[in-house]
Design brief:
With 394 residues, the chain is of the alpha/beta class. The protein is built from 15 helices and 15 strands. 36% of the residues lie in helices and 15% in strands. The strands form three sheets. It has a six-stranded parallel β-sheet, with helices on both faces. Strands 9-8-7-13-14-15 form a six-stranded parallel β-sheet, sandwiched between helices. A three-stranded antiparallel β-sheet has the order 11-10-12. Strand 13, helix 12 and strand 14 form a beta-alpha-beta unit. Helix 9 packs across helix 10 and helix 11 runs parallel beside helix 12. It is elongated, with a radius of gyration of 23 Å. The model has no long low-confidence stretch (mean pLDDT 95). The structure holds adenosine monophosphate (AMP). The site of adenosine monophosphate has 16 residues, from strand 12.
C-alpha cells in the first residue's frame, strides 16, 4: 500500500522534522567531495519551505563512536545547503542539547535548522526512547527521506516517529521513489523480468538470489560469485575468489532453480590481481591453476546482453568483474550498455553497480538508480522495513 508523502501534509507554520541521509563523503580537510545526497534531498526540503513550513534536518555522518567527534560534524552539510537554497539555514552544535533547543525555538517559517550528527548520541544506534522523545518534541510532522538507512531501526528511523503518535508521519520524495521502483516494479513486474547479480560474495547476495529466483524469469550470475557456483558444478576455478563453505548452498540453488539460474559460459582470467597481468579467456570451469577469474568472458557478456535486450524489467546489483581495473571492466560495461540501450524498466541497486553505471556515463539512461546499497539489497531480499511500515498510509 502506498505511503503518505510530504506533498499531502499541511506544513504551513509547522515544525517538520526530516530524517535525511547527509552521510556525504568528506576529504581530509572536511570538504564535501560529492554533494549528491544533499542535492537529492532538496525536493522534499523545498516542498516544506515553499509552503511556509520550518525544516529541522537530522542525519548521521560516518561512524563516530557514540560521542562528538569533530571529524564527523554535519556543519559542512549545513554550509553546503545554505549555498543551494535562498532560505536561512542554521546549524545546531548539538543534537538535542541547549543549542538545538534554542535554535528550534527561534525557527521562523521558511527557515532550516540542521542538527548535529545523530550518532554523536549513544541513543541513536540503540533506538533509545528518551533520546527519541527529545527529537520528537521538536516537531509537529515527521518525514523519512533517508532511504539509505531505511533498513535500520536507529532511533531517528523508528523510535522518533513512534514517539510522535497522532502527528503526521510521511515519506519524502526520495523514499517515495525508491519504494515505487524497488517494491512496486518488482512486486508486479512486466515480463520477461531479468535480474543480474554480481559482486564478490555469494554470502552477501544469497537471500537476494533466493528471493529473485521466486519472482524473476532469469537470474544471471556474474562477478566472483560465479566461481563458487562453478566449484559446485565440479569446475576448476584456479586461484579465483571463492567461498568453499558456500558450495553446498550453491549446489542446492542449482538443483532447485533449473534453467532460471544462468551462469557464465566463459571467464576472463589473469595470473595476478593486476591490470598488466597475463590474461586468458577460458570456458567456465576451466580456469588454469595459476590464474584467477576477474571478469565474465566475451561470450557471457554477449549472452547476458541479449537476455537484457529481450527483457521488460531488469534489476542489476553487483559488477560482473573487477570493474575498477580495466580491462576487467569489459563484462560490467557490456551489461551496463545493454541495460542503457534497452527500453525495459531498469533498476540499479546501490553501491558498486550504481558507481559502475555512473562511471560508464549511463546513469541517466536507466529508470532508477537506487541511493541505498544495503537498503536496496534488503528490499531485493523481500524484507519489510519497520521505518517505512510505520509511516501513514496515503
Ligand atoms: P559487492 O560489494 O559484493 O557488490 O562486490 C563488489 C566488488 O566485487 C567489486 O569491488 C569488484 O571488484 C569485486 N569483484 C567482482 N568480480 C570479482 C572477481 N572475479 N574477483 C575478485 N573481485 C571481484
Amino acid at each position: 500500500m502506498a505511503k503518505k508523502t510530504i506533498a499531502a501534509v499541511d506544513v504551513a507554520g509547522k515544525n517538520v522534522l526530516i530524517r535525511v541521509d547527509f552521510n556525504v563523503p568528506l576529504d581530509e580537510n572536511g570538504k564535501i567531495t560529492d554533494d549528491r545526497r544533499i542535492q537529492m534531498a532538496l525536493p522534499t526540503i523545498k516542498s516544506v519551505l515553499d509552503r511556509g513550513g520550518r525544516v529541522i534536518l537530522m542525519s548521521h555522518l560516518g561512524r563516530p563512536k557514540d560521542a562528538p567527534d569533530a571529524k564527523y560534524t554535519l556543519k559542512p552539510t549545513a554550509d553546503r545547503l545554505a549555498e543551494l537554497i535562498p532560505n536561512k539555514v542554521t546549524f545546531a552544535t548539538d543534537t538535542v542539547g541547549d543549542d538545538a533547543k534554542a535554535k528550534v525555538a527561534a525557527l521562523q517559517n521558511g527557515d532550516v535548522l540542521v542538527l548535529e550528527n545523530l550518532r554523536f548520541q549513544p541513543g541513536e544506534k540503540k533506538g533509545d526512547a528518551a533520546f527519541a522523545a527529545e527529537l520528537a518534541s521538536f516537531a509537529d510532522v515527521y518525514v523519512n527521506d533517508a532511504f539509505g538507512t531505511c533498513h535500520r531501526t536507529d532511533a531517528s528511523m523508528v523510535a522518533v516517529p513512534n514517539a510522535m503518535a497522532g502527528k503526521p508521519k510521511a515519506c519524502g520524495f526520495l523514499v517515495e521513489k525508491e519504494i515505487k521502483y524497488l517494491t512496486d516494479a518488482i512486486g508486479n513486474p512486466q515480463r520477461p523480468f531479468v535480474a543480474i547479480l554480481g559482486g564478490a560474495k555469494v554470502s552477501d547476495k544469497i537471500m537476494v538470489i533466493k528471493n529473485l529466483l521466486g519472482i524473476c524469469d532469469k537470474v544471471l550470475i556474474g562477478g566472483a560469485m560465479a566461481y563458487t557456483f562453478s566449484l559446485a558444478q565440479g569446475g576448476k576455478v584456479g586461484k579465483s575468489l571463492v567461498e568453499p563453505d558456500k558450495v553446498e548452498l550453491a549446489k542446492e540453488l542449482l538443483a532447485t532453480a533449473g534453467d532460471k539460474l544462468v551462469l557464465p559460459v566463459d571467464t576472463h582470467a589473469g595470473d595476478a590481481f593486476s591490470a598488466d597481468c597475463n590474461k586468458v579467456v577460458v570456458e567456465a570451469g576451466q580456469v588454469p591453476d595459476d590464474y584467477e577469474g576477474l571478469d565474465i568472458g566475451p561470450k557471457t557478456a554477449e549472452l547476458y546482453a541479449d537476455l537484457v535486450r529481450n527483457a521488460k524489467t531488469v534489476v542489476w546489483n553487483g559488477p560482473m568483474g573487477v570493474f575498477e581495473m580495466p580491462p576487467f571492466d569489459a563484462g560490467t560495461k557490456a551489461v551496463a550498455q545493454a541495460i542503457a540501450e534497452s527500453d525495459a524498466i531498469s533498476i540499479i541497486g546501490g553501491g558498486d553497480s550504481a558507481a559502475a553505471i555512473a562511471k560508464l556515463g549511463f546513469a541517466d539512461r536507466v529508470t532508477h538508480v537506487s541511493t541505498g546499497g544495503g537498503a536496496s539489497l534488503a528490499m531485493l531480499e523481500g524484507q519489510k522495513f519497520a521505518a517505512v511500515e510505520l509511516l501513514d498510509e496515503a
